[in-house]
Structures are given as C-alpha cells and as structure tokens.
Amino acid sequence: MSCFLCPAAHIGLLAAFMVSEQMPAPLRVRDAGETARILARENIRALRARYGDHNEDESDLIRMAAAWARRYASKPSPTTGWPAQVTASHVRVYARCLRYQLAETADWETTPAACLLEGIMAATHLAPDLPKDPHVWVYEDQSRYVLEG
C-alpha cells in the first residue's frame, strides 16, 4: 500500500460537500474550514505513519485545504451545492481516495476524519459509479494557482 497527500482543493471540496444541502441534515457539519483542517491533519498523520521519516511541515496543506473549503462553501453551484463540474459520483470517488490514504494508521477508523468520510459515503451511496479512470481519483481545481490563502 502507498500513501500520498491529497491536494488541498480535493480536501476542501469534500469539506464543502459536508456543509452543503446535499448532505443529510443529521450528517451535515457547520464549518467547512474546520472540517478541511480535520481531514488534512489526518492525511498528514497517515503519511507520517506510512513513511516514518516524513518530517516536513505540512501546515500549508492544512491552511490551503481550509481556504478551498471556505471558497467552495461560499460559492456553490446553484443546483447542486458544490462546484458545477463535480457530481455526487465524483465526490464519492474523491472520498474513497482520501479514505484509502487515511487507512495507514491502526486507529484511523475511530477518528473524526473517518466519521466524516463515512458520512459522505452514506450521502452519496446512490450515486452511479464512474468509469475506472485514474484521472478521476484525485480532484484538482484548475484555478488553484489563483486562490489567495
């Protein structure tokens, strides 16, 4: 198994989905920025568990994930509540990707991040599966170079 840090926009998108109307009310969270920070911290912890020598300061990932989450949550698509090009099927795939990255720690299933991702999986369980395409596994926002953090 391998582990990588998901892009900040990927984590931010998942966090914004969790505050959207697409998320069932009992599972919906209030703060997209804090939710992104929880997911990003857990991704960093998993990377360190997998590759013990990973000592880099990843505070930029945490800060930028929260910034993306706030951006997506504040400018949702009028019809879906998240960026227009992203469907519930995409969100499900992106959640699977992050969940796979987080599975590096022995206790990950008991973490708040695991609960958040399971909420997304529950909310998107009826979404049709996307074709197996490695380019769909990770979300990259093409405007990522213009986001002010």
Provide key terms for this protein.
149 residues, mainly alpha, globular, disordered C terminus
Descriptive notes:
There is one protein chain. The protein is mainly alpha-helical and 149 residues long. It has one domain (8-146). It is built from five helices and no strands. Helix 1 (8-19) crosses helix 2 and helix 4 packs antiparallel against helix 5 (112-123). The chain is globular and about 40 Å long.
What's the topology here?
Elements: H1 8-19, H2 32-50, H3 59-74, H4 88-102, H5 112-123
Helix pairs in contact: 1-2, 1-3, 1-4, 2-3, 4-5
Radius of gyration: 14 Å
Contiguous runs where pLDDT drops below 50 for at least 5 residues: 144-149
Overall morphology: globular
Beta-strand residue fraction: under 5%
DSSP helical segment count:
5
Query: How would you name the oligomeric state of the polypeptide chains in this document?
Result: single chain
In total, the number of domains comes to 1
The helix/strand series, from N terminus to C terminus, equals HHHHH
Q: Would you summarize the structure shown here?
A:
With 149 residues, the protein is mostly helical. It is built from 5 helices and no strands. The radius of gyration is 14 Å and the shape is globular.
